[in-house]
Amino acid sequence: MTELIKEQHLLDSLTSAFKIKGRVIRDRRVEVFADKKMVSGILLFAKKQLGFIHLAHMTCIDWIDENKFELIYTIWSPIEKIHLFVKTKIERENPEMENIDSIWDQANTYEREIREMFGIQFPGLIGEQDFALEDWDEMPPMRKDFDTKKYALETYYQRPGREDAKDVRETISERSGTKVPDFAKKYSREK
Amino acid sequence: MIREKETTLYLGPQHPGITGNMMVKLKVQGDTVVKATTHVGYLHRAFEKLIEQRNWLNAFTLLCRFCVPEPDPMELTYARAVEELDNREVPERAQYIRVIVMELARLQSFMLWYAGQAGSAGLYTLGQWSVGDRNYILDLFEELTGGRIYHMYIWPGGVRRDVTDTWKDKVLKTMDYLEKRQDDYNQLMFDNTIFQKRAKGVGIVPKDKAIEWGVVGPPLRGVGIKSDVRIDEPYEVYDKLDFEVPTAEGGDIWARALVRKEEFRQSISIIRQAIEKMPKGDYYNKVPNPMKWVVPEGQAWAKTESVRGEIGFYVVSNGTNKPYRVHAKGAAYTHGVTVLEKILPGQNIADISFIMNSLGVCPPEIER
C-alpha cells in the first residue's frame, strides 16, 4: 500500500475534519460518504483547502429498493491527480438537496438535469425549468419506477398494418398471395 | 451615443454552425450580444434510460451515438469502466490497437473541426478538402470494423477483431498523406487574414476562471494550462508512448486553433509509434455469453481524452446482466451551456457559431 500514501493522506484529512467515513478505492480514487447536510461543506473544504478545483462530474442513482436517491459529486485535483467522490443518500419522498452552484457555476447544468430526470429539488437553483425535456408532466423519467414501454404504448399508436408485429416477408406474402420460401421462414418471429 | 433598443433573437435550433441542434436565445443591442441563454432539448433520445434496459454489450449500439463526430471515445470510456467493475485485464496488443483507433478517431474529428471552424468563418474550400480527406480515415475504419462512422469495435476485454499487416501499412501511408495535407490546411486557415482577424481576441475564456467553469481539453490548453487525461491519468499504453501536450496563450479562438493544429501532428506521431511498438498476442480477453454476463456489483468512473476534452462515464452495476445506471459527461456538457452563456455577452452575432465550433459544442452529447 506504499504507493497509495497520497490517497490515504487525503482520506485522513477529510475524515478527521468532518467525522465521516470513506475509503481508498484504488490509486487516484478516494470516496467518502456523508450526510446530505455536510456535502456542501466538504466540497467547499476540498476546493479551497485541498486543491480539488475541478468538478468533473455529478450524478444521481435511484436506489428504489432502499427508497433512496444517491448523489455523487466527482471532483478532481489537477495537482494531486486524484478523483474524490463525495457520496450522499437522500430520501426518495419529496427529495431535496442543497444547491452547490455557488461553489461551481457548472453544477447548475447538472442540477437542472437531475431536477428534471429524477425530480430532486435544489432550492435557489436558477435556470429554466426545462432542460432536455419539454412540456413533460409525467413522472421524472430516469426514476426506476418509470416504465418506458408502458408510456410508449399508452402515448403512441402502432403504425397501421403492423399491429400483429409480423415478419415483413410474411405480410408481403399474405398480401401478394405468394409463399414465403423455406430458407426465409426461419427468421420469422412466429417461430 | 444613442443607446440601441434591446431585441430578442433566437439562434437555432436548426444547426447553429454545424454543431447539432440546439438553441441560443439572445438579447442583442444592434449586432452585440447582451445576454445569452442556451436551450437544449431538440436531440434527447433517452439513451441512458434505454441502456438500463439492455445487457452490458448492447449498450454499445447506443452509446457510440452520444456524439456523432466522436463515437470511439465513448466506447472506450464505457468499456474501461466495465472492465474496472469486472476486474478484466486487457491484452497489451489490444491496448495498442485501442490507442491507434482512438487517435484515428481524433484525426477524423480534427478534420471535421477544420471544416466547421473554417466554414463558420466563410472559408468553405478548407471544409471541402478536409471532409474529403476524412474519408481516407473512414475507409480505414470500414476495413477494420465494418462501419464508417459508428464502429462498436472496442469492447470490454479488448477489441472485436485483430488488425492485419496490410491494414497497418495502409494506416502508415494514410498518415504520410495527411501529414503533407495538413500543411495545405494550415496555409489556408492560419495564413488567411480573414481567419486571423476573426479569431484573434474573440471568444476569450479567462485563465483564472477556466478550471472553475469546467473547461477541459483544447480550450483549457488554449489558456496555457497543460492538462490532458492521457498524461494526467494515463490509460491503455499512452504512458509508453512519447508525445507532447501543446498549449497556447490567450484563451481566444486563435489559441485554441493553434493547440488543435499541433495536436493533429501529435496524433499522427502516436499512431506511428503504436504501430511500430505493437506486440504480438491476443486482442481480446473474451467475455462470457453476453446475454448472461453478470458484472459484479459496484460503481466505476472512467475518463478519456477526446478531441473536445475529457469524457467521463459513471457506471453502476447491481450485480445483474444489465447496467443499473450509466451516466456520461462529455466536454460539451460544460462548454455548451455555462461556458457559452458566460463568454457570449459582448460578442458579435456573426461570431457565435464560430465560437461554438471553437469550444467544441456538441448538443447531442449534452442531453444524450
Q: Summarize this, please?
A:
The complex is a heterodimer of chains A (191) and B (368). Chain A contains 6 helices and 5 strands, in the order αββαβββαααα.
Descriptive report:
The complex is a heterodimer of chains A (191) and B (368). Chain A is α+β, with helices and mostly antiparallel strands and 191 residues long. Chain A contains six helices and five strands; from the N terminus they run H-E-E-H-E-E-E-H-H-H-H. Chain A has a domain of 127 residues: 2-Layer Sandwich (Beta Polymerase, domain 2), CATH 3.30.460. Chain A is 30% helix and 21% strand. In chain A, strands 1-2-5-4-3 form a five-stranded mixed β-sheet, covered by helices on one side. The relative contact order of chain A is 0.10. By secondary structure, chain B is of the alpha+beta class. Chain B starts with 5 loop residues before the first strand and ends with a helix. Chain B has a single domain, classed as Cytochrome-c3 Hydrogenase, chain B (Orthogonal Bundle), CATH 1.10.645.10. In chain B, a hairpin with a 2-residue loop joins strand 2 and strand 3. The radius of gyration of chain B is 21 Å and the shape is globular.
Output the number of helix runs of chain B. Answer: 13
General form of chain A: elongated
Low-confidence stretches of chain B: none
Q: Name the structural class of chain B.
A: alpha+beta
Q: What is the terminal separation of chain A in angstroms?
A: 57 Å
Largest interface: A-B, 31 and 38 residues
Order of helices and strands of chain B: EEEHHHHHEEHHHHHEEEHHH
CATH class of chain B: Mainly Alpha
Low-confidence stretches of chain A: none
CATH superfamily of the domain at 2-128 in chain A: NADH:ubiquinone oxidoreductase Nqo5 subunit
Strand order of the largest sheet of chain A: 1-2-5-4-3
The percentage of residues in β strands of chain A lies in 15-25%
Number of strands of chain B: 8
Question: Hey, roughly how much beta strand do the residues of chain B contain?
Answer: 5-15%
- CATH class descriptor name of the domain at 2-128 in chain A: Alpha Beta
Oligomer: heterodimer
Number of helices of chain A: 6
Query: Which architecture of the domain at 2-128 in chain A does the CATH hierarchy give at level 2?
Result: 2-Layer Sandwich
CATH topology of the domain at 2-128 in chain A: Beta Polymerase, domain 2
Average pLDDT rating of chain B:
88
Q: What share of residues of chain A is helical?
A: 25-40%
